[in-house]
Design goal:
The protein is 80% helix and 0% strand. It contains 17 helices and no strands. Helix 1 packs antiparallel against helix 7, helix 2 packs across helix 3 and helix 4 packs antiparallel against helix 7.
Length: 405
C-alpha cells in the first residue's frame, strides 16, 4: 500500500488538511481563546494577545520549515514528516489545558514548528513521487488540502462555540496519520534519500550554487504570503468589529473563514491547468495582478457590508489559492534533489519572518491608524514588490529526481 506514489500523495494531502485545521483554530476562535487566558475580550487585549499568538505560530513555522527541511534532506523525508505532524497535533491538544498566555505562546510556537515542516515536506515529497504529467494538476490539489482544513474548522466554528472541543476533535481525528507515514518510511519515498551525502557542510556548499533561485523563490513566495496571512489572521476580527450582529459576529467569522477556504480551493485547482497552458511565470503574474485588483474594493471602502466583505474575500482567496498551488509546483522544480527539501523550506519560510512581523504589527497599526481597514491596506504593498520580481523569474527545467513507478 505505502509503496505506491498515489498512497504517499494521499498521506501528504491529509497532512496538509491537518495543518490547515490546527493553524486556523486560534485566529477563528481568537476572542474566545484570549478570554480563556485573560478573562476579557476587549479590542485592545484581543489585538495584543492575538498578535503574539499569531507571531509565535509563524516564527515556529519558520523554524520548523527551514531546520526540519534540512533534516529531511539528510535523514529522510517520510520519518521527518510523520514526526512533524505528530508534534503539531500534541501541541494543539495541550493548548486548552494551559492557563496563561505565555504558555499558550509556547505551544503555538511548537505547533508552528510542526506545521511549517509538514507544509515543506508534504510539498517536496509529493512533487518527487508524482510524474511530470500528473504533477501540475495534483500539486494544485495538494495545495488545497490546507484550505480544506480551514473550511473544516470554519464549519465547526458555526456549530460549536467551545474552541477547546474543536481542538480535541481536530487532533483526535488526524493522530493516526503519522503512524501510517511511519509504516511507509521504507517505501519508494525512503529510496529518494538513498544517494544523499549525510554531511550538513555539503548541504550548505550545494545551496550556494543555487543562490539566484533561492532569492527569486523566497521573494515570490514571501510577498504573496505577507498579504495572505494579514488577511487570514485579521479579516475575521475586522468583520466582527464592523458587523457584530446578534451573535457577536460568530456566524460572520465562520462564513469568512469558509469563503477563504473555498476561494483557496478553487484557485489552487485552477493553478495547474493554467500553468500548463501559459507557463509557470505568467501564471505567477496572474496571481499577483488578480490579488491587487481584488484587494482594492475591500480595503478602500469605508464600511463594507457583510455581503460585500464575504464576496470580496472569496475572490481575493481565489488568487491566493492559485498562488499557493502554483508555488507548490514551481518552487520544488527549481532545485536539485539532494537540496530540495532545504531549498523549499528556505523559499517557503524566509518571507515568513517578515510575515510574522506583519501579523504582529497589524495589531499595533490598528490602534495607530484607528481601524483594521487602514492597517490591512498597508500590507497589500508587498504584492507590488512581488509583481516586479516576476520579471527576473524563469521557467524551470524538468524536475531532477529519481525515476519512480
Amino acid at each position: 500500500m505505502f509503496k505506491r506514489p498515489t498512497s504517499i500523495f494521499v498521506l501528504c494531502w491529509l497532512s496538509g488538511l491537518a495543518s490547515g485545521s490546527v493553524a486556523t483554530l486560534v485566529p477563528l476562535y481568537l476572542p474566545s481563546v484570549v478570554q480563556t487566558y485573560t478573562g476579557t475580550t476587549d479590542v485592545a487585549t484581543v489585538g495584543h494577545v492575538g498578535s503574539f499568538l499569531q507571531a509565535a505560530f509563524l516564527l515556529g513555522w519558520v523554524t520548523g520549515g527551514i531546520l526540519l527541511g534540512a533534516v529531511a534532506d539528510r535523514r529522510g523525508r517520510s520519518i521527518t514528516l510523520a514526526a512533524s505532524l505528530l508534534l503539531a497535533c500534541v501541541a494543539t491538544a495541550l493548548l486548552p489545558s494551559v492557563t496563561t498566555a505565555m504558555l499558550a505562546y509556547a505551544l503555538r510556537f511548537i505547533t508552528g514548528i510542526g506545521v511549517g515542516s509538514v507544509m515543506v515536506l508534504s510539498t517536496t515529497l509529493a512533487a518527487e513521487v508524482l510524474s511530470d504529467a500528473r504533477r501540475p494538476w495534483l500539486m494544485g490539489v495538494l495545495a488545497n488540502s490546507y484550505a480544506v482544513g480551514i473550511i473544516a474548522t470554519g464549519i465547526a466554528q458555526t456549530k460549536i462555540a467551545e474552541w477547546q472541543t474543536v481542538a480535541y476533535a481536530i487532533t483526535g481525528s488526524v493522530v493516526l496519520v503519522p503512524l501510517f507515514m511511519l509504516a511507509g518510511k521504507r517505501s519508494v519515498a525512503a529510496r529518494l534519500d538513498a544517494d544523499v551525502e549525510p554531511s550538513f557542510g555539503a548541504l550548505v556548499r550545494d545551496l550556494r550554487t543555487q543562490r539566484r533561485e533561492l532569492i527569486i523563490g523566497s521573494t515570490l513566495f514571501g510577498c504573496i504570503l505577507i498579504c495572505l496571512w494579514a488577511a487570514f489572521s485579521w479579516l475575521p476580527s475586522w468583520a466582527t468589529a464592523l458587523h457584530p450582529g446578534v451573535d457577536g459576529g460568530m456566524g460572520l467569522r465562520g462564513k469568512i473563514m469558509i469563503a477563504l477556504g473555498l476561494g483557496g480551493i478553487v484557485g489552487s485547482l485552477l493553478s495547474g491547468p493554467l500553468a500548463m497552458r501559459i507557463g509557470r511565470v505568467r501564471t505567477i503574474v496572474v496571481c499577483y495582478v488578480g490579488a491587487i485588483i481584488a484587494s482594492l474594493p475591500l480595503y478602500t471602502t469605508d464600511v463594507p457590508s457583510a455581503t460585500m466583505m464575504t464576496v470580496s474575500i472569496a475572490v481575493l482567496a481565489i488568487f491566493f489559492g492559485m498562488a499557493q498551488g502554483l508555488m507548490a509546483l514551481y518552487i520544488p522544480e527549481l532545485f536539485a534533489h539532494h537540496i530540495r527539501a532545504t531549498s523549499v523550506g528556505i523559499c517557503f519560510n524566509i518571507g515568513r519572518i517578515l510575515t510574522a512581523g506583519a501579523v504582529l504589527n497589524i495589531g499595533v497599526l490598528v490602534a495607530a491608524f484607528g481601524g483594521y481597514r487602514e492597517a490591512l491596506l498597508v500590507f497589500t504593498l508587498p504584492l507590488l514588490v512581488g509583481l516586479v520580481v516576476t520579471r527576473f523569474a524563469h521557467e524551470p527545467k524538468p524536475l531532477s529526481t529519481p525515476v519512480l513507478t
